[in-house]
Amino acid sequence: MAEAIKVLLVDDHQVVRRGLRTFLEVQDDIEVVGEASDGAEGVARAEELKPDVVLMDVKMPVMDGIDALRKLRELANPARVLIVTSFTEQRTVVPALRAGAAGYVYKDVDPDALAGAIRSVHAGHILLQPEVAAALLSQEEANSGQGRGGSLTEREREVLGLIADGRSNREIARALVLSEKTVKTHVSNILMKLDLADRTQAALWAVRHGAAG
What we know:
Layout: E1 5-10, H1 14-24, E2 30-36, H2 39-49, E3 53-56, H3 65-74, E4 80-85, H4 90-98, E5 103-106, H5 111-122, H6 130-140, H7 154-164, H8 169-176, H9 180-194, H10 199-208
Parallel strand pairs: 1-2, 1-3, 3-4, 4-5
């Protein structure tokens, strides 16, 4: 049996954390390893517990979710962050995605959909609603790096197209008959050449410039 996905809950409302824990603890492949009540505590707990996925609220005291995301990126923490929010405005969700979130769900999400979202981001996928993807593309348009695409090798273009399809490194490796280590190297080269921060920006760049499959 595969090892359970380790999840950290970061939300300033205890009732929300309790509800999430109650549901997630009945999932055979998900283990809640800890909780935090604000972003600063969440960063500290993520460093301590090394979760696979962090469920992070946006609006919290001491340090909000967006600043916590930035801090986790500075620390090179490998946890995938899934924003769980009651805010639907693009001005709230878009900065979180730009700060490094792997996606977001709303707090009224169906429990089974939440479990599916956790599994999806853990597998390396990016969860973007169409309207938020459009907003991100619009914001990136002025500094899209269109001219930098010519520096990519043919193999890097193939990898980029699969990233845009939401494929994880493992799935890309399987599709292109490569090792995961080689795929990781290609991804790093793509981000460096296009001057992008993460896979989310790479996927958006690919869609914007027609490199998606």
